[in-house]
Design brief:
single chain; alpha/beta; seven-stranded parallel β-sheet; six-stranded parallel β-sheet; 22 strands; binds adenosine-5'-triphosphate; binds magnesium ion; hydrolase; ATP binding
Length: about 775
């Protein structure tokens, strides 16, 4: 294909063009943020299809978030004159779900298997721990859930985990019991989607050959964040003669805490005998000041493969830095700036507010909400995670699969039906002994409780009967009414917002139906050459993203089942009406791969960003810095950084000093809206923050040098007689204070732990009022 003549290739620089048109071998594109990696990957798909090198059904592309997958499909839709919705483009989880829907029988799953989200998983683990009569204090459900997910991500089933001590032995027992429970209930968690797919591909040669033959081109975005299991999964799909095209950026590796391995990049080069490694160095996304900030920051990391980015755009606006007195003031400032940007013509959807931890979104959300500004939150406390929505979804899930015990327990007595804890215990015992589901065990409970349970079962059956053949919207409306949920919230004092959310669920379903094309003609894509390659047939590609007919029967799962899957997989984007122009709120992790005209990075405080959990080790700090690099490089035109002197988090007021990252940014690119207060000395330890001398007025040329009498590493000013909290020693009172700056020491009486001397540049102390 001649490059110059092809409109697809017209807007590529020479390196990008070389990457897009590489021969069908394995390739690695290693390049910094905004250099066009995703654009190259998308264009390559379009080019391969357009030039007839592969049919749309022969491409598999993996992205990192649902939002990114959608954007890729949209872009492809504009490049190719064919329907693209049926293409295998999605997240690892989305693709696995699709695979397992098609091969549920081979995978040993019920046809209508449901997906547990992170919260469901923790409550499922909690039930197992209870059933095993173990102490929840010792076996914390959330931690056990992490252990299980971690094991699965290493590809380890319970029998594969090496048991070194008693604690691990118990954890493995819980893991096993949890697996049995999931299997019984017909549910899978996120990690299971991957592991199940991996095992099926590994153990079933016919299936493996089929898919290896089918997907001639496998393309992976954000390759630096694949974990061991995902990498092994890719190796199974990549058969002989296929091409794996991986793009990534080692500086944006931010999932090490979930087992992602940058090492996969060098493994890939070696194991796949990668012939082509292409680097892209020109950034097309951001103005110079933003890029300078990103480059300078990341240069503080030592473990890098090393590359730099340049731009031909001008410097643009300086990066604005704001210091707020409180988190509320910070949110207010963000709001005002965002409004200003909007007035000047920036669409709200081009304004992103980023934060390091989910908990930070609450204040931002309520500020936007009170001002009546539409916003949308990605990740975090999502629409589909709200209690009333989960109740409604539980009823809907029971229609699909009454043996889903998680859903059963959630609503069996909600709204109340006189089913008490004793009755439920009896029911759970009966289910456990017989190895059956709760729904199936109702007969084993005698008396009034048993009768109430039977009535609940009858209600579920009646709803299923009554909704047969209805549209998704009608099904949901019926269930909201018949279950008593709507009445319940109508009578509840604070129920209005919840009722609105339930209405919103109906809207979400409606939007889903239109988007996914249910009820419209599903357009079949051309199927490629491998038809009939394996016994149970190839799932014909249909124009329904992530929804595939059963491989054996050809039956397309019901819109309800599809919607429930969507609800579990998707971070609900429903705070704002679909299509409404809304400000985008998300964690930095969720922002990966995305770009916005204007970006606010909030909460830039020591302990928050970089996160306190990461401060103690070198790798942790480097990962935080990569995270900050990701955050900065999301911005096209304007970047705003803010921190606050005080912040309410987890019910406590914290006094914070600004993040060390400010000191790692080039001064020429910054503009301090509030005056920058000079740190003391070179050491971390000693920046001023709350409790320092009055801030210098903005017009003062030289920032004031401030020497507080004694400050902690967090810049908190301390006095004798003050009560403080220490992570390890608990509550104590300051007896003596000595020295200053990096040498400041305090003698503190910690009661039970006795008198201790602590170096304030190291110790973490929080004052207690
Ligand atoms: P990240 O590392 O953040 O995922 P990336 O390397 O994937 O970034 P893209 O998102 O593909 O980068 O591209 C960044 C921006 O630059 C996009 O808006 C893209 O359309 C634009 N862009 C990329 N290449 C070119 C080009 N050759 N000409 C004009 N614009 C380009
Ligand atoms: Mg990208």
């Amino acid at each position: 294909a001649s490059a110059s003549g092809n409109p697809l290739l017209r807007h590529l620089n020479p390196e990008q063009l070389a990457a897009v048109t590489l021969p069908a071998r394995h390739a690695l594109i290693l390049a910094g943020a905004g250099s066009g990696k995703t654009r190259v990957l998308t264009t390559r798909i379009a080019w391969l299809v357009q030039t007839g090198q592969v049919s749309p059904a022969g491409v598999m592309a993996v992205t990192f978030t649902n939002k990114a997958a959608k954007e890729m499909l949209t872009r492809l839709g504009t490049m190719l004159p064919i329907p693209v919705r049926g293409m295998w483009i999605g997240t690892f989880h989305g693709l696995c779900n699709r695979f397992l829907r098609a091969h549920w029988k081979l995978a040993g799953l019920p046809q209508s298997f449901q997906i547990l989200d992170a919260q469901d998983q923790v409550s499922a683990v909690r039930r197992v721990i209870k059933a095993m009569n173990l102490d929840e204090e010792r076996y914390v459900p959330k931690q056990v859930a992490w252990f299980i997910a971690g094991s699965k991500e290493e590809g380890l089933r319970p029998r594969d985990v090496s048991v070194r001590d008693e604690q691990t032995r118990k954890l493995v027992e819980i893991y096993q019991a949890y697996e049995d429970q999931c299997q019984r209930e017909g549910v899978v968690d996120f990690a299971e989607l991957l592991l199940r797919t991996y095992e099926l591909m590994r153990d079933n040669a016919a299936l493996r050959e089929h898919y290896q033959h089918r997907f001639r081109h496998i393309l992976v975005d954000e390759f630096q964040d694949t974990n061991r299991l995902q990498y092994a999964w890719l190796k199974l799909f990549a058969g002989p003669g296929n091409s794996v095209f991986a793009v990534g950026d080692d500086d944006q590796s931010i999932y090490a805490f979930r087992g992602a391995q940058v090492g996969n990049m060098s493994d890939f080069e070696r194991e796949f005998h990668v012939e082509h490694v292409i680097k892209l160095e020109r950034n097309y996304r951001s103005y110079g000041n933003i890029l300078d900030a990103a480059n300078e920051l990341i240069s503080h990391n030592r473990r890098r493969l090393g590359k730099n980015l340049r731009t031909e755009a001008g410097p643009g606006e300086p990066v604005r830095v704001y210091e707020a007195t409180s988190d509320f003031a910070e949110a207010q400032w963000v709001l005002e700036e965002a409004q200003q940007l909007h007035r000047e013509g920036t669409p709200r959807s081009e304004i992103a507010i980023l934060y390091r931890s989910n908990a930070q979104s609450r204040v931002l959300e309520s500020t936007l909400f009170n001002a009546g500004i539409p916003y949308r939150v990605y990740g975090g406390l999502r629409f589909f995670e709200r209690a009333e929505i989960k109740h409604a979804l539980a009823y809907l899930r029971l229609l699909e699969n009454p043996n889903d015990d998680t859903s059963y327990l959630r609503v069996v007595n909600f709204p109340t039906r006189g089913i008490g804890a004793r009755t439920l215990e009896q029911l759970q015992d009966a289910a456990r002994t017989s190895g059956r589901s709760l729904y199936q065990s109702v007969g084993a409970v005698a008396g009034k409780g048993g009768a109430n349970l039977a009535a609940f079962n009858a209600l579920v059956d009646a709803m299923r009967e009554a909704t047969r053949g209805l549209t998704l919207r009608e099904i949901i409306e019926h269930v909201l009414e018949a279950s008593g949920l709507q009445d319940y919230y109508r009578n509840e004092k604070e129920g209005r917002e919840r009722l609105e959310n339930l209405d919103e669920l109906v809207n979400a379903a409606e939007a889903f139906v239109t988007q996914e094309g249910f009820g419209k003609d599903a357009v079949a894509l051309p199927i490629d050459e491998q038809a009939g390659a394996i016994a149970d047939g190839d799932p014909p590609a249909v124009a329904l993203a992530d929804i595939v007919p059963d491989a054996e029967t050809g039956e397309i799962i019901s819109p309800l089942a599809a919607f429930l899957t969507h609800a579990a997989l998707e971070a609900g984007d429903n705070q704002a009406q679909a299509g409404q122009d809304a400000i985008q709120l998300m964690t930095v992790h969720a922002a990966k791969g995305l770009e916005f005209d204007c970006v606010f990075i909030t909460g830039l405080e020591e302990g928050l960003f970089p996160h306190e959990n990461a401060l103690s080790d070198f790798d942790g700090l480097e990962e935080e810095r990569r995270l900050m690099y990701v955050a900065i490089t999301r911005a096209r035109k304007r970047l705003y950084l803010s921190h606050s002197q005080t912040r309410m988090l987890h019910g406590q007021t914290r006094y914070n000093i600004r993040s060390r990252f400010f000191d790692e940014l080039p001064e020429h690119a910054l503009k301090w809206i509030t005056p920058k207060v000079q740190g003391f000395g070179g050491g971390r330890g000693a920046q001023s923050g709350w409790g320092s001398a009055p801030a210098t007025p903005p017009w003062s040329a030289a920032p004031a040098k401030i020497e507080p009498r004694v400050a902690t590493s967090d810049g908190v000013a301390l006095r004798v007689g003050q009560s403080v909290f220490h992570n390890k020693f608990g509550e104590g009172m300051i007896v003596t204070l000595e020295g200053s700056g990096n040498d400041a020491r305090a003698q503190i009486n910690f009661g039970r732990h006795g008198l201790k001397w602590l170096a304030l540049s190291v110790a973490k102390l929080t004052p207690i009022e």
